C-alpha cells in the first residue's frame, strides 16, 4: 500500500515534518533540552554524495583489524550546514558528536538503507554502519506522541493510526496497536519496510574510543567452559548503549579470545567504573547467572575512592524510582522509593591522584575544596541499584573522586546545605509546587556523566558461597 492511495499528498507530508520539527526530547544525562531534528528531503547540503549503486553490506566493516584501527583514530570531520561530512563510523572519533536523532514515517515501500539514505541525505555505507551498530529502530505503527505534543502532532498521529489505514497494513494484521508500536532494531540494511512504518535513526551513536586503546587479552582474568571473567576498563560499556551495540566489552572480549559465538552480558557496571564483569558463553548460563543474582548468591566488593571520609558500617538510603540520572537519594523512607544498602568495611587515607593520573583518566575535580587527601573504601554492595554507591556516598558528603555528575551537587550542598530537598537540612516548603521547584533546582545542580573514569572499581566478585571468586587488578589510582 502506498500513501498516495489514501490521499496523503506532498503538502500534507511537508506539513507533518514541519510540525514534528517542534518536538523536543530530554537526552539522558544532559542538564538541558535539545531540539529533535526531523527528516526533510534536503537535510544536509553536500557537494558530492556517493549515490553509486553499492551493496549495503557491512562485511568489510566487520573484517577490519581492531588493533590497526586504534592508530587511525581521528577527530570529527568538518561540519557543513551544522552537520559533519559523513563517511563511515570507523575510524572512531575521539569525542562524541552532538545529539542528532531523526524520526521518519516511511512513505513508500523501500529497502531501509536506501530509504534512510535518500531521506536524510546520508551515504549508503554510513547508513549500513548505523544499522550494524544497532542505531536504527522501527515500529510498525507510530508510537504515541509525548504529553508535550502539539495539537498538530496529535492530529498527525491520529491520521497514521486511523483504522482505515491500519486495516490495509500487512504488518498490522493480528496485532493490537500497542503491540505494533513496540520499537525494534533494524538488523539488515536490505530489509524492506512497509509504507507507514515509523523509523528512529540515531545518526550520531554514542562512541567508546577507549575500546580501541585496550589490550583486551590482558584484561581477561579467567576463561571457563561456561563464562569469562573480564577486568572491565573504565570508559567502556559492558554490553553497549541503546544506539551502539558494536563497541562493547562483550564484543571486544569475544574477538580477543577468538570465539566463534558471542559472549553474553550477565550484569552491568557503569561505563565510568572498572573491574570484574562476568560474561556468559551461552544463553543458558546467562539465565543461570541471572537466577544466582536474584537468589542473592552473588557477592560484589567495590573499592571506592571518596573525596571525604565515610563511616564504617551499613549505609541505608532510599532511591527515587525514576529511571533517570542523577539518582536522587533520601535518608528518610519515602513511599515506593527503592531501598539502597551497602556496607563500608574499611576506609583509609590515600593521596589525591596527581595531575598526570587525572589527565590520563579524564578525572575532573569539580571544584572540590580539599584535594590533598582522598579516602579508599572497601564496600560490600548489599543491593544493586544503578549509581547506588555514587549516590549514597554523595549523600554522605563524600562523593566519588572524578564523579562529575554528583560532585558538583555535593559542592553546592556544602555552600548551601538546605539546597538538597532530601538532605538533613532541607527546607520547609509551603506547597507541593514549591517543593517541586526545589527538586528541579537540585537536579540541575548535578553535572554531566563522566567521560572516562571515576574512583570506583568492582574489585571482587564471588558466588556459590565463595566457590567461584575473582579479583580485579590494581585500580587506576594506585
Coarse shape: globular
Q: How many β-strand runs?
A: 21
Main sheet makeup: 11 strands, mixed
Q: Give the % helix.
A: 10-25%
Strand content: 15-25%
User: In terms of per-residue confidence, which ranges show pLDDT below 50 for 5 or more consecutive residues?
Assistant: 1-76
Number of helices: 14
Question: How many domains make up the coordinates?
Answer: 3
Radius of gyration, taken over Cα atoms and rounded to an integer in Å: 25 Å
The secondary-structure class comes to: alpha+beta
Instruction: Summarize model confidence as the mean pLDDT.
Output: 85
Instruction: Give the distance, in angstroms, between the N- and C-terminal Cα atoms.
Output: 64 Å
Short description:
The chain is α+β, with helices and mostly antiparallel strands and 478 residues long. It has 3 domains: 100-204, no CATH class; 209-295, Pseudouridine synthase (2-Layer Sandwich), CATH 3.30.2350; 302-457, no CATH class. It has helices spanning 10-20, 59-62, 66-70, 112-120, 124-133, 151-160, 163-166, 177-180, 249-256, 283-294, 355-360, 388-395, 407-415, 432-444, and strands spanning 24-26, 33-35, 79-80, 83-84, 101-105, 110-111, 136-139, 184-185, 192-193, 198-202, 220-223, 227-232, 264-265, 274-280, 298-306, 313-319, 329-330, 338-351, 373-381, 456-463, 468-471.
Overview of this protein structure:
This protein has helices at 10-20, 59-62, 66-70, 112-120, 124-133, 151-160, 163-166, 177-180, 249-256, 283-294, 355-360, 388-395, 407-415, 432-444, and strands at 24-26, 33-35, 79-80, 83-84, 101-105, 110-111, 136-139, 184-185, 192-193, 198-202, 220-223, 227-232, 264-265, 274-280, 298-306, 313-319, 329-330, 338-351, 373-381, 456-463, 468-471. The chain is of the alpha+beta class and 478 residues long. It has 3 domains: 100-204, no CATH class; 209-295, Pseudouridine synthase; 302-457, no CATH class. Strands 11, 12, 13, 14, 15, 16, 17, 18, 19, 20 and 21 form an 11-stranded mixed β-sheet that branches. A 4-stranded antiparallel β-sheet has the order 5-10-7-8. The chain has a two-stranded antiparallel ribbon with strand order 1-2. 24% of the residues lie in helices and 21% in strands. It holds the Pfam family PseudoU_synth_2. GO terms for molecular function: pseudouridine synthase activity; RNA binding. Residues 227-395 form the Pseudouridine synthase RsuA/RluA-like domain.
